[in-house]
Amino acid sequence: MWRDDAFLHDVIEAADRIRDGLRAIEAPEFARSPVLQDAVPYRLLVIGEALNRVSPEIKEKYSDLPWSQIVGLRHRLAHDYGGIDRDLIWRIATAHVPPLRDRVAEIIEAEFPDDSASPP
Q1: Residue 74 appears among annotated catalytic residues
Q2: pLDDT per position as a tens digit, 98-115
Q3: Does the active-site annotation cover 86?
Q4: Could you please report the per-residue DSSP string of the chain?
Q5: Which of 9, 74, 76, 86 is an active site residue?
Q6: Which among 61, 88, 114, 117 is least buried, having the fewest CB atoms inside 10 angstroms?
Q7: Residue 108: is it exposed, middle or buried by C-beta count within 10 angstroms (0-12/13-18/19+)?
Q8: Is 65 left (phi over 0), alpha (psi -120 to 50) or beta?
Q9: What is the mean pLDDT of the chain?
């Protein structure tokens, strides 16, 4: 049985953790922080894994999301972690994760209206 709601909520949680971890952080600080350079890719991996597990029906219905690119990033992070560019991770985390989070929240609201996309 697919648990799309749980997987989508995992995306929200990981995106929120990225946002919170990078709050008031600029790119040079990220470049000097091994902890953030480890934590952010891990949360991106969680996002990719969660979206990989979403049902084909949801993926088809919301084909505006770049499902395969996000899952592809997850695969690169898991299998080619040494070849990942720190600047690319920064750009993904700051430019792409926030709108992805918002879109996933919209999907949760549309598909699971009794769920809350944002924690209290």
Answers
A1: yes
A2: 999 999 999 999 999 886
A3: no
A4: ---HHHHHHHHHHHHHHHHHHHTT--HHHHHT-HHHHHHHHHHHHHHHHHHHHS-HHHHHHTTTS-HHHHHHHHHHHHH-GGG--HHHHHHIIIIIHHHHHHHHHHHHHHH-TTS-SS--
A5: 74
A6: 114
A7: buried
A8: beta
A9: 92
pLDDT band for position 8 (50/70/90)?
very high
Candidates 17, 32, 53, 79; catalytic one: 79
pLDDT digit string (tens) for 59-74?
999 999 999 999 999 9
% the chain with pLDDT above 70: 92
Distance CA 50, CA 24 (A): 27
DSSP string, 5-26: HHHHHHHHHHHHHHHHHHTT--
Nearest to 11 by CA among 111, 120, 118, 112: 118
Show the tokens assigned to 39.
């934590």
